[in-house]
Amino acid sequence: MSFGKGGARHTPKPQVDADLLLQCFSENSELLQNLGIYEQVSQSQAAQPKGLVHCLPLLKGLLALGPTCEIHGSSLRQGVFQALLQNPSLNDSKYNGETWVGIQVERITVLLFHMRRLAASADLRACASKLTGPDFLKLQDTLALIERKGQQQMELPLVEREAEEESTERRQLKKNISEVSVDSNGFPKALATPAKEPSEAEAPLVKGEEPGETVRGLPGPSFKRRRPGSLAWQEVAPGGNASLRDALGIGKGSAKKPAAKKVKKKEKTATSSKDKTPLVKGKSSSKKGEPSSSKKKPLIKGKVPASYPRKAWTKLLVTTTSKAPWRTYITGTTEPNGKKHLIVETTKHKHPKYKEILQKIKERLEEDNITKEEALELRQELYANFP
């Protein structure tokens, strides 16, 4: 792994002598003090043709020291600092000397990067549209001086070039491409089960016969070899027609099937489908002598007929909420010591006089002992007809 050295294609920028850079900066001290447009242009922005033409004298001096238009940052910092020591009037800004040197080195780095990008792209249409003819020719001649790293490497002698390639070449596995043989169905033959031809030594044994000797003169496997603790072996006479199952005592006549258990059929009550009618929730099935549900009067006008005994409600309690959602409900029970449960509930959302409606329902619960289902029906009728 490379720490801080870039990727595999990264090559370090060349180091340049600080005295040579000092001579270049001294000859172009005015450009070093003021780079024009490139005082504010960042590296990510597009190249400014007019700014490059303005800085061409300085760029030509730097190209003479670094033909690839790359100079190490530490060398640039030393050269700019030496130029500042020689001519302190270069720093006419509000920053101190160390900060000013860092700013100028960054500006020069942006200049060199834009020149390299223009030389690599070879697309100078934007430059030609923004420059005059003489300025465009000057910029074109300066870009022609930039050498690429690949061209510089090809100019090396053949022996040095091969040695450099061998040092940077990575070890790679050799690619062995072989055709896979397939069968008629298109499956690889390497995955198929190999076919074995039966030999004399591996010939199948006949049931009831002793195996013969093998090719090497050794006795073959015997059927009498049994695991300890298994069933006793019953020897079969040679040439007999008895099967192995009969010999082991598990033939057809050896065991009887267990008697099938008689399953008693449950007596089902014969009921016709006509007699089965679905019960409505909250209503009991009608019997002889009882009035049908269709003939019942509305719950508001009259009392419920006491055709069957009703359980009296006890512990009736009315509860009203003190905040939204506004509602009131009744709880009670029909058992002597039973736990109270919800009977019916009214809400303001359904009717503005929900309290009066619940009071009517409570009176019917106390007087007529109506069931919970009848209380719900009464609530719907009161919602629809209550004044």
Write up this protein:
The structure is a single chain. The two termini are 89 Å apart. The model is unreliable at 152-156, 232-241, 266-275 and 285-298 (pLDDT under 50). This protein is mostly helical. The protein has 13 helices and three strands, in the order αααααααααααβββαα. Strands 1-2-3 form a three-stranded antiparallel sheet, covered by helices on one side. Among the domains are: 18-152, no CATH class; 304-385, no CATH class. Helix 1 runs antiparallel to helix 4, helix 5 (73-86) crosses helix 6 and helix 12 packs antiparallel against helix 13 (372-385).
Total helix count?
13
Mean pLDDT: 75
Output the structural class: mainly alpha
Helical content, roughly? 25-40%
Largest sheet: number of strands, sense, barrel closure? 3 strands, antiparallel
SSE order: HHHHHHHHHHHEEEHH
Q: If strands are numbered along the chain, what order do they take across the biggest sheet?
A: 1-2-3
Q: Strand portion, in percent?
A: 5-15%
Q: What is the total tally of β strands?
A: 3
Shape: elongated
Distance between the termini: 89 Å
What is the CA-based Rg, rounded?
Answer: 54 Å
Poorly predicted segments:
152-156, 232-241, 266-275, 285-298
Question: Which structural traits does this protein have?
Answer:
5% strand; mainly alpha; single chain; 13 helices; three-stranded antiparallel sheet; 387 residues
